[in-house]
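Notes taken during the Thursday session

The instructor put the following on the board and asked us to keep it in front of us for the whole hour. The protein is pectinesterase. We were told not to look anything up and to reason only from what is written here. First, the residues (132 in total):
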Amino acid sequence: GTEMHVIPDEGGTFITAQARNSESEDTGFSFVHCKIDGTGSGTHLGRAWMSRPRVVFAYTTMGSVVNPEGWSNNFHPERDQTVLFGEYKCEGPGADPKGRARSGRQLTPDQVAPFISLGFIEGSKWLLPPPN
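Then, after some discussion, the predicted structure tokens were revealed:
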């Protein structure tokens, strides 16, 4: 249920810049059931700050504030092959997959499953109340 209200910046506007450099790093960002709105139309969902970022948006309503490209390789075209920038069942004018950057992809149910479970954020350790 997170709402993100984007205010554009002249130098570029990015919702995420995840810093993962290795496949062995167990990190990433997962946004589930969110709403993205704001002003402007050039906001990217993420940029490849490092070589192997993982960012997923699932069941998210994306307003026209989201750039049609959606994702940025951060001027490192080789990162198009190493990033995991994924979307799953997103909707709204900013979610159209037609203009997406090469690095972004529409995920299948099996591909998105690890990112939309509480296990991804070890939620059973901190999010749920302890058992009685």
